[in-house]
Every structure is written in C-alpha cells, then in structure tokens.
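User: quick one, fold this
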Amino acid sequence: MRILITIRSHESYFLKRLANQLGHTAIGARFTAELLALVQRYEPDVVILDPEYSDCQRLRAEYPRERLKIIFMVRSSVEEEEARQAGADAVIGRFPTAGAFEQALRSALRCDKGRALS
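Assistant:
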C-alpha cells in the first residue's frame, strides 16, 4: 500500500518507519503545497494527516473516498470528532502500535469510520 504521511512533528519519521516495517511504501510531505503535489504525483492509497492541516476537505473534494483514504492522527476525542467531520475515513492516536496502525489502515480501506486510537 502507498501511504503519504503529512505530520509536522517527529512522529512523521516514526510512522514512515512503522509503515515500511509492515511492508507498505511510505513517503512524507512537510508542507501543504508539497502534500497536494505529492498526492497528484504519487497517487497514494492513504494519506495520514496531522490535525493542524486544514486540507482534508480540499483533498476529499478532489479525491473521493473511492480513490483516496484519509487518516487523521489525533491527540484527543475532540480532535477525533473534528477529523471525522472534516471527512477523515479513520483516526489513529499518537505513536500507535503496529496493530493499531494496521487497524487504522483497514478501517480507512473499509471506509467504515472505524476507531483506531491507541
């Protein structure tokens, strides 16, 4: 699975490493402009966003759920609700276990708004 990770903190490296260890291909984007360009060029299956990014709705408008799944990394239940309202397919907590990470990916791919907080 191709995963684009757009987290501004050191968690980005952690998630990229975890994704690669689990057999996925992961790359990172640091800025909004870079994110949009990489989605077009890289055509990821899943994008993992930091709640600080406000591009979830824009991504969702340009890429329907059938083409792109969006996972938000959340730090609280308030952020979880905001992510779901913004169009996220799933959420994941900070520094997830391998199991929680895989569960978030499965939830997003099923697009069932599943929980994956750890």
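User: anything notable?
Assistant: The CA atoms of residues 6 and 31 lie 8 Å apart.
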